[in-house]
Amino acid sequence: MTGSELAVKGRLGCFLQSPFIMNDTVRNNILFGHDASTVDEERYKLALEVCSLSHDLKLLPHGDQTEIGEKGITLSGGQKARIALARAVYHDGDVYLLDDRKYLCSCYVCLKTVHTMCSLFRYSPP
Length: 126
Description:
Strand order of the largest sheet: 1-4
Oligomer: single chain
Low-confidence stretches: none
Shape: globular
């Protein structure tokens, strides 16, 4: 590895500090790029739980079918970040790059999410 090059063998999951959110439903934002017929519902539910979105979905008018983005309801920065992270978790990468995990919202949510991801992927944080 030299300069800004990085070689990854396998699938890369990426979480950026400025999350990408489409004008679509919460569900479609998380499942981005997956055909509806190939959705792994267990993996989807796991992504929601790992990213502390289950409570948020109960508050939204149509749950994960609520439209978000410029034409939908307004989400907090933390909610947008957790949806973007749920997308990365759902896509089941071999390597995850987390740009700034503190952006996830409260300290509690950040710690819960990181520890759950670590246990899910069998990694012991220092």
